[in-house]
Design goal:
Radius of gyration: 16 Å
CATH class of the largest domain: Alpha Beta
Number of helices: 7
Strand content: 15-25%
Oligomer: single chain
Largest sheet: 4 strands, antiparallel
Structural class: alpha+beta
Low-confidence stretches: none
Bound molecules: protoporphyrin IX containing FE
CATH topology of the largest domain: H-NOX domain
Mean pLDDT: 97
CATH superfamily of the largest domain: H-NOX domain
Order of helices and strands: HHHHHHEEHEE
Number of domains: 2
């Protein structure tokens, strides 16, 4: 997993839970907690950090992943200048798989990215499949909520965990 996902996560934890929470998380995880943007680290290390945070702060894993996704989108948007080619939540989410992530892969050939496939789209509802070797559907939900904040849109995102592939349903409200 790309180093920036780790460095941003540590920053997110500091902003949301405070510096002591970062300290506690790293201590409990038994990891060094030292990451660089350009590095690449095992996904299991991210799992270990998130679990340590949840146990220490008595928060749910799902909540941490969603809130981190929201935060992360703001950061990704500022790193990715082509973001201004898009104009709405549906516009972005329907181009993650065929424009945004392929551009990410050009920059980082070793990126391990999920795939998405839009199944149906109407004016107010978009349903897409989430396919990944990681179960980060709640991070995806948070990223989409971050997109909605970016465009000032009101949306609801539902995850259908029992479908295979998992479905993300985005409803404009
Ligand atoms: C709605 C917008 C987006 C969604 C839903 C989305 C979804 C995701 C998810 C869920 C992951 C975690 C990996 C997995 O699940 O297998 C991921 C990884 C990643 N995404 Fe996106 N993404 C979005 C936009 C962006 C944008 C705008 C960038 C711009 C740079 C970006 C860059 C990355 C990078 C660098 C990774 C990490 C890859 C790795 O660790 O190897 N994403 N994305």
């Amino acid at each position: 997993m790309k180093g920036m996902v780790f460095t941003e996560f540590v920053e997110f934890v500091e902003n949301r839970y405070g510096f002591d929470a970062v300290d506690g998380m790293i201590e409990d995880s038994g990891l060094s907690g030292v990451y660089t943007q350009a590095g690449n680290y095992p996904f299991e290390e991210m799992v270990t950090l998130v679990v340590a945070l949840c146990e220490k702060q008595k928060v749910e894993l799902v909540e941490v992943l969603e809130k981190y996704g929201e935060y992360l989108f703001g950061k990704l948007a500022s790193l990715y200048p082509n973001i201004n080619k898009f104009s709405s939540v549906f516009d972005i989410v329907s181009h993650v798989d065929n424009i945004i992530h392929p551009e990410v892969r050009k920059l980082y050939p070793d990126a391990d990215l999920p795939s998405f496939r839009v199944v149906t789209q109407t004016e107010n509802k978009l349903i897409m499949e989430y396919m990944s070797n990681k179960s980060l559907q709640h991070l995806a939900k948070g990223l989409i909520l971050g997109v909605a904040q970016y465009y000032n849109e009101n949306i609801v995102v539902n995850i259908q965990e029992d479908s295979n592939p998992i479905l993300l349903e985005i409803i404009k409200s």
